[in-house]
Write a structure and sequence with these properties.
The chain is α+β, with helices and mostly antiparallel strands. The protein contains five helices and twelve strands. The radius of gyration is 16 Å and the shape is globular. The N and C termini lie far apart (35 Å).
Length: 196
Amino acid sequence: MIEFKDFKKYKWFYTSSGKLVVGGKNSAQNDELLKRIKESNIEFIVMHTSQPGSPFSVILEDIKKISKSDIEECAVFTASFSKAWKSRAKKAKVDVFKASQLYKSSGMKPGTWGVAGQIKQVQAELELVLAKQLGVLRAVPAGSIKNKKNIILRIIPGKIEKKDLLPKLEVEMPMHFSQEEMLSALPAGGIKTIKA
């Protein structure tokens, strides 16, 4: 397997079956991540929303060991950290393909990659839960949290900007997190909270 000791610098979460998913926070990180994946010569599942403006998300596990739930959870993660969240969409289409299908031609903008061959498409709902993974507050797909008691709060796209939401979160959340940790965990764009 590929060494990814610095995965916490990216967007990341663990699926319900314990697979690490890593996604770029911006176009430069998307490029860096995909170059690392391509250089590894290991076949991985990669996802991106059908529309521009999402992380490239990679399930860092042997393709043969990836389950349907891993794919569904990664698709929700990819869609939720895309521009679809900012536009307050309820769902987004996510393209699913293999790392070997990716190519980068000279002249392509940073963060832009082409995909050759067949692409599978899945529909993903934009809804995340706040929970701790590896002791860190994360906004992750609900399906990735096995014990529902560990869900702190459910969030969907909404009108309240995340900075303006912090005081409400501090009241609603049963444990204390720094503002920096909360801002880092949440997707870009407006948010609406739902009781867990």
